[in-house]
Amino acid sequence: MREPPRPFGDGAENLTRMLTMNRLIRAMRAIRVLALCGLFVWAFADTAGAAATAVRLACLGEFESFPAWYAHERQWDAAEGIAVELKVLPTGRLLVDNMRALDWNLAACGGVPAMLAMLRKDVYAVGVGTDEAAANGIYARPGSPLFTADKAEAGRLMRGGMILCPLGTSAHQILLAWLEGLGLREDDVVIVDTKPEEALAAFLGGMGDAVALWSPAAYEARRRGLREVANGKDCGLVQPTLIIAERRYADGHPQEVTAFLRGYLQAVAALESMPDREFAPLYRRFLKETAGREISVEEALAERAGHTLFTAERQRVLLGGERDGEALRGWLRNVIAFHQKTGALSSREAGELERLPLVTPRFLPSGTE
Questions:
Q1: CA 251 → CA 121, 122, 244, 287, 357, distances in Å?
Q2: For a tag on the chain, would you pick the N or C end, based on fewer CB atoms within 10 A?
Q3: Sign, Cα dihedral of 131, 286, 34, 37
C-alpha cells in the first residue's frame, strides 16, 4: 500500500490542496446542477398502475429508503391506491435545499438537513426512518497516528488539520462531536465541504487528514484500506433519519401520506422478521438499483446491524401519538444544538424549533389498522 502523505501538513500545503480540490468539486457540482434542472428520472414510474396516484419520494440510496423500495417491490403501495416513485440524491442537504425544483411530496433524509426544512416551515416530520449513528463515521489512513494517540495527543495532531466532510449533514454533526471530545472547536481545523463520494476519492488521492463518511460509502473506504476512527454511537449521538412531507401536499393529501406510511411500516415489519439469507441479497439489489452500488453479503448484513428500524408501535411513541414523544424530541434537540454551533441557526430560530410543532403523529396509520 502506498505510504500516506505526512499526516498533518503545514498550512500552506493544506491550503494549496484545498484550493485545487475545490476547483474539482465546483466542476462536479456544475454537473449535478444540470441534473437538478430536469435530468433526474423518477424510478418505478413504468410499473405504476393507471388508476394509482403517484407519490414522489426523494431520498438517498440508503437504509431508510429500503422499506419504501421493498413496499413497492411487493406492490403494497398499489394495494393502497398509490404508486411510489423514488428520486435518489447524493445528500439530504441537496434534497432539502432544492425541494421546490425537485417537486417531491415526501422525503427520507437525515434529521440534520430535515431540521432546516422544518425551520422554513416547509415540511412536517411524519415518521422516523432509522437511527444511523453507528453507520456514520470519521475515517483515516491506516498509518495515521490518530489510532495510537490518546485524546489529548489526537487533539494536538488534529489542530490545523484538514478534514473532508459534507457540511450541514449527519456526518458534520459527528465531526463536531468528535472534535469536541478532542478538546477542539470547528474553527481549529480546516473543513472542506465535500460530498461523500468526492471526499473519498480526494482522500484516497492524498488530500486531507481525515474524512467523514456515511454508509454505504464507508464500505468502499474500508475496502480501500481506510480505518474508522470513531462513529456517531462512539460520540454518544443518536442520529435519526426522518420521513418528511411537504406541508401543502400533506395538508391537501393526508390520505396519500398515510397510505405511504402504511406500506412503509408494513415493509419495516416484514424486513425486521426476514432471515439474513433473504435480507442480504434483497438489500444488495436495492443498493444496485437505486444507487448503482455493489456491496458484499457481509456488508449488507453489517448495514442491517448498524441501523435501527422503527415499527408502527414505536413510531407512535416516538412521534408522541401515545406518549409525549420525548425520545425523538430529545434527539432532535441535539440536532438543533448542532445547527446553533455551526451558526446555521440563531438563538431565536433555535427557540422556535425547540417546540418542534411540525413533528406530528397525525398521518400515521391508526393502531387498529
A1: 13, 12, 13, 32, 15
A2: N
A3: negative
Domain region containing 55: 40-132+240-354
The CATH number given to whatever domain includes residue 349 is 3.40.190.10
Residues 140 and 102 in one domain: no
Task: Mean pLDDT check: name the lowest of 20-24, 53-57, 176-180, 358-362.
Answer: 20-24
Q: For the whole prediction, is pTM greater than 0.85? A: no
The model's pLDDT over 18-76, given as tens digits with 9 standing for 90+, comes to 444 554 444 444 444 434 433 344 555 554 445 789 999 999 999 999 999 999 999 99
Among 231, 264, 289, residue at a domain's last position: 231
Nearest to 229 by CA among 245, 246, 243, 208: 208
Listed residue (142, 179, 152) closest to 163, CA to CA: 179
Q: How high is the pLDDT of residue 328?
A: 82
Q: Of 42, 40, 90, nearest to 62 (Cα)? A: 90
Domain count for the chain, please give it: 2
148 shares a domain with 75 = no
Q: Is 5 inside a domain boundary? A: no
Residue 167: all three cell numbers together: 457540511
pLDDT for 7: 42
Question: What mean pLDDT do residues 187-200 have?
Answer: 94
Residues 197 and 215 in one domain: yes
